[in-house]
């Protein structure tokens, strides 16, 4: 199994280009199922989750052609199977995103229930209840969601929790439903907006994406089209925190600064100078140690849960003390034990971790537990004295493209080895 060996201590310096967003490309690939013809999806990041989604579509009979630039032509017209099997869903919860498109376009779907995962129980009741309210008949049998419908009917849906993939599933389903669907308490994440932009480019009638009320007028058909995926705001934030922690200076290119407002504010509060342009962000520390910050995660536009682990590590080496409160997932502090093994001074109370910054972390063998926790361990290793070996990095390959190459380009001493 692959491991990352990192010798920390030096500042991150230089330029890095950001890839397409994992959490935008996964719903967009699912949405290609809604069309009557092929789409060409560009700026696709080379990630294990993307490979899993392609395998899922491929098994349904969807034709996929990948160019060497990672542009994927996807032709759904030969589909002959409507199932997402447990063995794929188990490795990637976002497989649930094929449920809405399959039902809306083909009137049938069989999708394994994702079950729990490392960061919490993560139910999908809102996806299922919403589709039922639109006319689908759904039974849960043998661990599978088995769903059938005639043409879905538009209706008003009030989601009682803000859910990103729930909003996306129902939005996709609504595009081909009969009449108007109103999604209330919708997720406002930039990835929802990117999906809505792709759906609109295919001919969907959508208003209000990016607000908490999305209105969709169902249309009879959608036509495949070319579309380029939005840059990854979490990858962007991860590199920025790396520079902030190591007293570095970096220029992050091909990104989308306005999707990172809450994160950039916290980095400024931590003492970093931030300059932005249309598609770049520069972070300057002047070699200073960051100041500890308090963070509370919540749905967009508030501070993202997917940046929580990285800021926990920032506080671990910061001047002063900070508290990080996680309100989105109940069990997203698994990195804390590993960080303590590297010398971090932190304690968990309920859904808050209290952190007192230390002058230096020290390298240690550590184990990655989920995607963003793994990213935080790499950041800790980059700032630590001595060598750190990060094990189980298959988690990181799910969501970060060529992470060691990109950190290496910023001057980090990092290499991948195979056991
Ligand atoms: N929830 C319900 N019922 C539902 C759906 C969600 O109670 O039917 C609850 C969840 O248990 C959770 C909260 O709602 O407490 C929010 O979960 P959400 O549904 O928004 O999460 P998700 O859609 O499964 C996406 C991202 C996650 C990201 C969250 C929150 C994708 C593919 N995944 O997950 O990304 O953390 O939104 O922003 O878009 C990651 O990239 O590392 C990652 C975990």
What would you say this structure looks like, in words?
- By secondary structure, the chain is α/β, with parallel strands linked by helices.
- Helices cover 31% and strands 25% of the residues.
- The protein is built from 14 helices and 24 strands.
- The protein has a 4-stranded mixed beta sheet with strand order 22-23-1-24, with helices on one face. A 4-stranded mixed beta sheet has the order 2-15-17-16. Strands 4-5-3-14 form a 4-stranded mixed beta sheet, with helices on one face.
- Helix 8 packs parallel to helix 10.
- The radius of gyration is 21 Å and the shape is elongated.
- The mean pLDDT is 96.
- It binds uridine-diphosphate-2(N-acetylglucosaminyl) butyric acid.
Average of per-residue pLDDT values: 96
Number of helices: 14
Main β-sheet: number of strands, strand sense, barrel status?
Answer: 4 strands, mixed
Gyration radius from CA atoms, angstroms: 21 Å
What structural class do helix, strand and pairing data support?
Answer: alpha/beta
Main-sheet strand order equals 22-23-1-24
Number of strands: 24
Helical content (DSSP H or I, runs of 4+): 25-40%
